[in-house]
């Protein structure tokens, strides 16, 4: 075993928001690196036993928008060297500013902890429809963004640099397993968005990319994370509906071209070596049940 391997195997990781992406990620980390200490948070009491069964230390951590839990419990969760923040903003459910207050609560805990490396799961939904290929530098401020609150959250976390290593991952539309694109549009009529190129990422690739970053080292950078293929929504919808026997949507004939964006992941490719398992969104793996849940 090399010195590097020995150092890596002592890693302690907490995943704040151990949900649809975070929980499979935790399981992969636990199975891949048996000596790593993996902690995961949830707001559901029923999930704690499931975490324990998988060798993951489970923490019940409500964040409304401050942490409502005993200090000793909170201190234990943040007593790690690496924190992954996978906290969906759910902006439609809360008043403006709620998500920012959540991030501020997290940062407050980070500042009193030994955490050195931080990975924040953001979204390519922050990009407006610019009708071209977009890169990370196209959105740096809330004013430039289609989701100002998400970018404001990113910026709060990047203010922790250089005292902490902070990687921002702007993930494309997360799909795979029981998140099937055709499920959400089956039977719809005269859709006008069929020609729009997709910016998707399969959950398996998202999890493996995070593991790649953890193993290779966390950079103070922002990366787009999307599959290389950008086929059209129509092709994706039709194929997944056909696969599961659902009624395919219909598409209106129009000369008007809808606004679009093509997300570039070239910056990530320049920093890390990773071979996509699902490079083509038409080849994503789906199932009616979530096998890793």
Automatic annotation (TrEMBL):
<dbReference type="GO" id="GO:0005737">
    <property type="term" value="C:cytoplasm"/>
</dbReference>
<dbReference type="GO" id="GO:0004029">
    <property type="term" value="F:aldehyde dehydrogenase (NAD+) activity"/>
</dbReference>
<dbReference type="InterPro" id="IPR051783">
    <property type="entry name" value="NAD(P)-dependent_oxidoreduct"/>
</dbReference>
<dbReference type="InterPro" id="IPR036291">
    <property type="entry name" value="NAD(P)-bd_dom_sf"/>
</dbReference>
<protein>
    <submittedName>
        <fullName>Nucleoside-diphosphate-sugar epimerase</fullName>
    </submittedName>
</protein>
């Amino acid at each position: 075993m090399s010195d590097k391997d020995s150092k890596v195997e002592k890693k302690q990781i907490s995943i704040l928001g151990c949900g649809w992406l975070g929980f499979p990620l935790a399981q992969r980390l636990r199975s891949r690196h048996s000596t790593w200490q993996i902690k995961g948070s949830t707001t559901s009491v029923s999930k704690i036993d499931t975490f324990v069964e998988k060798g993951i230390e489970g923490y019940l951590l409500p964040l409304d928008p401050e942490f409502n839990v005993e200090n000793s419990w909170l201190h234990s969760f943040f007593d790690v060297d690496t924190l992954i923040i996978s906290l969906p903003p759910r902006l439609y459910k809360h008043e403006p500013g709620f998500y920012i207050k959540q991030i501020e609560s997290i940062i407050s805990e980070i500042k009193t902890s030994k955490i050195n490396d931080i990975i924040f799961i953001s979204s390519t939904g922050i990009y407006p429809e610019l009708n071209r290929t977009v890169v990370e530098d196209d959105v740096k401020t809330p004013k430039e963004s289609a989701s100002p609150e998400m970018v404001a959250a990113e910026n709060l976390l990047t203010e922790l640099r250089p005292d902490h290593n902070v990687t921002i991952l702007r993930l494309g539309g997360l799909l795979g397993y029981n998140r099937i694109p055709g499920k959400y549009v089956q039977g719809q009529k005269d859709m006008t968005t069929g020609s729009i190129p997709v910016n998707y990422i399969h959950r398996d690739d998202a999890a493996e990319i995070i593991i790649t970053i953890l193993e290779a080292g966390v950079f103070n950078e922002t990366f787009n994370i999307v599959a290389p293929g950008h086929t059209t929504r129509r092709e994706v919808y039709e194929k997944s509906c056909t696969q599961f026997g659902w009624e395919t949507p219909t598409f209106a004939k129009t000369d008007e071209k809808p606004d679009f964006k093509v997300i570039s992941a070239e910056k990530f490719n320049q920093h890390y070596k990773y071979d996509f398992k699902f490079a083509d969104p038409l080849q994503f793996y789906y199932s009616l049940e979530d096998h890793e849940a």
